[in-house]
Amino acid sequence: MWTARQTPFFRSRRGYDLLALLLISGLIGVSGGCTTTRYLALRDVRENPLNVPLALISRQGPRISDRSVSSLQRYGLWDSYQQNRRDCVTSLRGMIDSTDDPELIYALSEMAYVEGKRAERAADTASALNFYGIALSNSYDYLFAEDLVDRRNPYDPQFRRVCEIYNESLEDSLRLISSQHNLRPGQNYSVASRDRTMTVRTQTRGGWNPEEFEKFDFVSDYSIQTLNNRHMTYGLGVPLIAVRKPADITDPKEKFYPEGLSYSVTALMRCTPSRPGGRLGGSTETVLEFYDPLEANQLLLASQWVPLETDLTTPLAYFLQSPEFRSRNRVTEGLLNPAKTQAQQGLFMLEPYDPDRIPVVMVHGLWSSPLTWMDMFNDLRSYPEIRSRYQFWFYLYPSGQPFWLSATQLRRELASMRDTIDPYRHDTSLDQMVLVGHSMGGLVSRMQTIDSGDDFWRIVSDEPPEKLRGPEDARARLVSNLIFKPNQSVRRVVTIGTPHRGSEFANDVTRWLASRVIRLPQMVMATSQSLLQENPDFFRNTKLMTAANAIDSLAPDSPIFPVMLRAQKAPGVKYHNIIGVLENPSFLARRAGPGDGVVDYASAKMDDVESELVVNAEHTLIHTKPTSILEVRRILLEHLHDLSQNDRVARLPETGTAR
Question: What's the rounded Cα separation, in Å, for the pair 135 and 120?
């Protein structure tokens, strides 16, 4: 019979560590987060809705549509077009001066775009820019010229095709301009085409400043690989990926923005309506605007509200695949060697800070990272009613350490964040904070809302903390872990798959295995040992101070759970709970009893919650399920409703008496 002892590898410390890690992985049912996961892939051919109707990528193309051919035949221009396409474009531009037929304007837009594609293939950049400009200005006229108000039909498929010609003409123009210039917002560019010189003035609209743009990439070049959903809206504009450049490395706010962050913007060109004729002869100035779709998904153009074309998901996937994010997302190292990942620990944002939006702080669990929230984050902010009122923050911490230590660090991080971004406490939205925690992250989150009293301290000592001897920083560190007040800014907590009474997963076997592979920070260990030596007979539970790791802290017999359950909660805070219960559990899960395979129902259930939802999901996936995401959305909307009700009641005394 084969045994590990027969293999020299498993007689080494490294072999035992690897074996222990694999066994823990199997018992927890998670993976350490594969660094080779692909979140998006480069397309062989960029996404373009005109590829098929205009045969842009076929051997016979590009060519105009049958509808445009019919328009040219009706106006006696088909023979001219077959003989010399470019001369026909010139003739048609002159003819449009004396007609208000949208069909002819559409045909001109389509013809110009096709000629732009032909010129670009021939490496004639100046001509390509000229034709794209004609397509852009005439499609803009079709959509917004006042003399066409009674002629254009938004129910006609041609109307959407014109929007696509506008968008693709703009994107192709931007690609050519970018190849000639390092395109950046806040700067002006002079673009010369065959028959004109155009000045492009760039502006930003949204939370990001012009100096925060490092570079652009095009959404249409990529396809989503891993995230469950791609969230887009259809309208006008070119969705782009903007890579952020730190505005000022000395600004203390910079520590909350991860390196290599990319985000969504939509580029839109405002053209001066040029009817009649659709001409932009000579020199003209055009405004190129970059919109943040989180702040605006429609805008006013020519007295009309126009939806923006947006993509929130591809820029997110671009960031998740970046080397900067991968270097920070060291999930397994955060479990096995917390000391090595302390530098990455902290709160961070993927959006510009907005004083008017309520923070939702997402807290991951054991052997995990903020990456685990990306499907929920991606889906939640796709709802306008959510993204307009909430901003999402993420807490990253080394999950191998006891959860109460991580809770202490989150307490400090939230205080530091508030002191940095709102030192004078003017931003009232920060006082309506919502925490969402998965698994162990739910315990970390709930600990932000309870008053320790002296119950936590009594777990380790019957002596008052004032009698503790030792270096001030060591004493303060220990006391802050066990004596604390609730964070009054946290008004609601959502726990998902959380072991409120511990997990049977943390048994003698897994705790022994964890002791083999998890290396607690030397500073923590040295501090505890120093305090023990200086205070003999002071402590009655030394194991929590010297040997407890994350697995130990989740054991059902841990003395911290009874204390947490009876601790005094902050007044007014509301709790919600989502529990996983598998309908068809595996053999091992059935033996563990009803639950998600890691946390049983009895441990996950709570009595002090506003709502509780049971979801058919295993532990590591429960927070990615649509049912769970919709429940969090419902809770966030309920939070807004309660706030509006409170505001209404607070205003009643001005006109009457509140009851």
Answer: 14
The DSSP-derived string for 108-135 is: HHHHHHHHHHHHHHTT-HHHHHHHHHHH
Residue 403 · residue 554 · CB < 8 Å? yes
* Through-space distance between the first and last CA atoms of the chain, rounded to whole angstroms: 78
Q: How far is CA 46 from CA 11, 111, 168, 439, 570, in A?
A: 53, 21, 11, 40, 53
Give the residue carrying structure tokens 């072991």.
499
Contact criterion met (CB below 8 Å) for 118 and 109: no
Q: What are the backbone angles phi and psi of residue 450, rounded to the nearest 5°?
A: -120, 155
pLDDT at 517: 61
User: What's the pLDDT score for residue 327?
Assistant: 80
Q: Is the pTM of this model over 0.70?
A: yes
| Number of other residues whose CB lies within 10 A of the CB of residue 472 | 7
User: Can you tell me the distance from the alpha carbon of 317 to that of 312, in angstroms, rounded to the nearest whole number?
Assistant: 9
Across 50-64, 232-246, 275-289, 560-574, least confident range: 275-289
Torsion angles phi and psi, residue 611, rounded to 5: -155, 155
What are the distances in angstroms from CA 490 to CA 268, 287, 571?
Answer: 39, 43, 11
| Residue 371 clears pLDDT 60, i.e. is over it | yes
Spatial CA neighbour of 263 closest among 295, 300, 288, 236: 295
Give the position of tokens 């088909």: 78
71 vs 656, residue with greater confidence: 71
Single-letter amino acid code for the residue at 273: P
Give residue-wise pLDDT tens across range 272-289: 655 544 444 444 668 899
Q: Over 70: is that where the pLDDT of 390 sits? A: yes
Give mean pLDDT, residues 434-439.
Answer: 98
Q: Which residues contact 656 (CB under 8 A, 6 or more apart)?
A: none
Is the pLDDT confidence value at 656 over 50? no
pLDDT of residue 16: 45
Residue 637 and residue 385 in contact, taking contact as beta carbons nearer than 8 Å: yes
Between 102-121 and 125-144, two packed helices, what is the crossing angle to 10 degrees?
160
- The partner residues of 201 in beta bridges, in order of sequence, read 188, 287
The CATH code of domain 329-653 reads 3.40.50.1820
Structure tokens at 239: 């969705």
3-state secondary structure (DSSP) of residue 204: strand
Pair 361, 438: CB distance under 8 Å: no
Strand duo 40-42 + 346-349: pairing = unpaired
Kindly report the number of other CB atoms within 10 A of residue 471's CB atom: 12
Domain ranges of the chain: 66-314, 329-653
CA distance 100 to 120: 30
How do residues 636-647 score in pLDDT, each as one tens digit?
A: 999 999 999 887
**127 three-class SS:** helix
- Classify each residue of 553-592 as buried b or exposed e, where b means 16 or more C-beta atoms within 10 Å of its C-beta: bbbbebebbebbeebeebeebbbbbbbbbbeebeeebeeb
Mean pLDDT of 185-205: 78
The tokens of 640 are what? 């807004």
The lowest-confidence range among 140-154, 239-253, 279-293, 468-482 is 279-293
The residue with tokens 């390196």 is 259
